[in-house]
Write a structure and sequence with these properties.
Structural class: alpha/beta
Strand order of the largest sheet: 3-2-1-4-5-6-7
Shape: globular
CATH class of the largest domain: Alpha Beta
Largest sheet: 7 strands, parallel
Order of helices and strands: EHEHEHEHEHEHHHHE
Bound molecules: nicotinamide-adenine-dinucleotide
Distance between the termini: 38 Å
């Protein structure tokens, strides 16, 4: 297990991509802090289930990524529990779809806070731990929407472009240290975040689920297939390997050709 002895924090990891990445890191031996804003038995059970799989240990730490102090507390609490923070995966994210002139201010603020500012706060808190440990990986889950725009996704597109900008700055500030900072840009991955968009798409275009998926949601993804959470976990593992020691400040697209257009 190549990540044995390393500690990872994955924000927003009770579902979808974050959960897949947390499982992948634990399977490779890392101790993993799972996170979301809730604090239910299911959240803690999830950590116990991952630990029971026999890789690295997992613990659940409640923290609302909309709250700056909570973001910093998450990292420090993970260091308290596991002794260090070597890998930070900024994954928590939400979506809201509306035209700019109808976009609720509260949604704009929440998306910017959770999808962008949280990554700033967790990175600020994690870098001192990485320096102390002499090794670090900051991996930001951006999106194809960090490189391209779509109508009705103003806050999401702005936040994801911002995450890529911040990734580059963090990479430059750590360039002479054994710390790297990169962004992964998935196209569509079939998670609860995307599932939630299917009924509206079916209703809006008056089509069945299969047509909504293939012809509308995957319209921009030339492979016409979804990326999987396991594939993203594999890319995270690659970025944690020594093969990626000289990769920093860059983006890795996992988008079935979306951004090749
Ligand atoms: P998801 O809805 O399945 O999971 C999001 C996770 O974030 C959940 O665990 C949720 O509890 C957590 N979360 C939400 N608000 C939070 C908050 N305030 N504090 C802490 N945790 C919070 O979503 P997903 O599809 O797995 O998306 C994960 C990330 O990947 C997001 O940043 C998203 O923008 C990005 N992404 C997703 C896709 C896709 O097609 N699914 C594509 C590109 C990028």
């Amino acid at each position: 297990m190549d990540l044995a002895g390393k500690t990872a924090v994955v924000t927003g990891s009770t579902s979808g991509i974050g959960l897949g990445i947390a499982e992948g890191l634990a399977a490779r031996g890392a101790a993993v802090a799972l996170n979301s804003f809730s604090d239910t038995d299911d959240d803690h059970d999830l950590a116990a289930k991952i630990t029971a799989l026999g890789g690295g240990r997992a613990a659940y730490i409640q923290a609302d990524m909309a709250d700056a102090q909570a973001c910093r507390h998450l990292v420090d609490r993970a260091a308290e529990v596991f002794g260090s923070v070597d890998i930070l995966v900024n994954n928590a994210g939400i979506q809201h779809v509306a035209a700019i002139d109808d976009f609720p201010t509260a949604k704009w603020d929440a998306i910017l806070a959770i999808n962008l500012s949280s990554a700033f706060h967790t990175t600020a808190a994690a870098l001192p731990w990485m320096r102390k440990g002499g090794w670090g990986r900051v991996i930001n889950i951006a999106s194809a929407h960090g490189l391209r725009a779509s109508p009705y996704k103003s806050a999401y597109v702005a936040a994801k472009h911002g995450v890529i900008g911040m990734t580059k700055v963090a990479a430059l500030e750590t360039a002479e240290e054994p710390i790297t900072c990169n962004a992964i840009c998935p196209g569509y991955v079939l998670t609860p975040l995307v599932e939630a968009q299917i009924p509206d798409t079916m209703a809006q275009y008056d089509v069945d689920r299969e047509t909504a998926l293939r012809d509308i949601i995957l319209d921009r993804q030339p492979s016409k297939d979804f990326a999987t959470t396991q594939q993203l976990a594999g890319v995270v593992a690659f970025l944690c390997s020594s093969a990626a020691d000289q990769m920093t400040g860059t983006t890795l697209s996992v988008d079935g050709g979306w951004t090749a257009r």
